[in-house]
Design goal:
Layout (H helix, E strand, L loop, with lengths): L7 H20 L7 E7 L3 H13 L4 E7 L1 H10 L2 H4 L4 H12 L2 E7 L11 H14 L1 H8 L5 E5 L3 H7 L5 H15 L7 H22 L3 E5 L6 E6 L10 E2 L5 E2 L8 E3 L1 E11 L4 E3 L2 E3 L3 E5 L2 E6 L4 H8 L8 E6 L5 H4 L7 H4 L5 E5 L21 E5 L6 E5 L5 E6 L2 E2 L7
Parallel strand pairs: 1-2, 1-3, 3-4
Antiparallel strand pairs: 5-6, 5-18, 6-10, 7-8, 9-15, 10-13, 11-12, 13-14, 15-16, 16-17, 18-19, 19-20
Length: 418
Amino acid sequence: MTAPNVSADQNFQLQLAGYAELLVRVGVNLQPGGKLLVNAPLEATELARLVARSAYRAGAESVVVRYIDEQLARLRIDEASDAAIAYVPDWLADESLKMIEDGYSFLTLDGSDPNVMAGADPERQAINAKVRAQAMQVVSQKMMGFEAAWSIGAVSIPAWATKVYPELDEAQAESALWRDIFKVTRADVPDPVAAWQAHIARLGQVRDWLNTRHFHALHFSDPKGETDLTVGLADGHVWAGVEDTTAAGVRIVPNLPTDEVFTAPHRDRVDGVAVASKPLLVRGEIVEGIRVRFAGGKVVEASASQGEATFLKLLDTDEGARRLGEVALVAASAPVAQTGRLFYNTLFDENAASHLALGRAYEFTFSADKAASGGNDSLIHVDWMIGTPSMSVDGLHADGRREVLMRGGEWAVKGLTL
């Protein structure tokens, strides 16, 4: 949204306010009388206040903002005792559960330094991440079951911006990253909420069509790369994407941006080789050049050209960490991909390419019991990108028939207009 006869700073303020409105009205879709918890980095005070304003104007009864200093997490890994690394207070999960019970919606403003954990001890990181995941598992299950409304947006901060735009000075990089955030979330158009409703309808038709096909598997092949992977789909799998509905009947958009449709693989029916098309940020460390081989659903070989120790520690989290919990399709021309930038942030990078997720499968991607349907379980759920502009994806039926889904990284389904 570019208003005429206003300065660049005024236009930025207009877009930032529109973005806050989008997060409240579309992201968590806050209802009159609702309550909102906002988790934000220290640098996000301006956006957090605009979110609070939008929330109160939407009729919020309570808005709580909590600021996160990620340097404290690094200090803990570097300086804390072994006992402190493995400690999570009992009240942490209890507090979140009480807020869910009280009807709070949860909004995360995501902005972090991709290098914050560079050089940190991977063993201590793995221990801390595992005990926290264990402590918060029941909270995660309730969130993934949409017992509460939740959404994740983004905020440009200097450390992240200069990683994405290393050729610019800090102020220029922060401004450039804000432009990207506004562009890929459609906050730069005159009516962002209307633009999102149109996007929800477009991507929703793909999701709904896929749910009529009942594919047995998906086959990914890249003539310019090594990826040649068959992902068996869980019995009674359900395709999801764009929006979800909470237990209270509120329609929300959990991720802004979002350009994916996704479902659950069968934990025992994944075979072949997958090569990451983008670096992955794992526990604060950048992992590049990921190559894995699956057999019978399990990662049996894994390597990375950078950050391999951290990646292997991730795979060793538990037995389910070596199996897939999600397979997602994203057009190579999606808005995030059009920026031409690597964001070192899963919220953005997963919406630039088709991807897989190691670990837990979401319960809402099954029409029947998750375990009986072949769904995977784990303490982790980590997305990593395999899609490229040269990738082909076919849907495979149980009788061997193939249907074209994507060619050259783009949707190629007959009868669907995208």
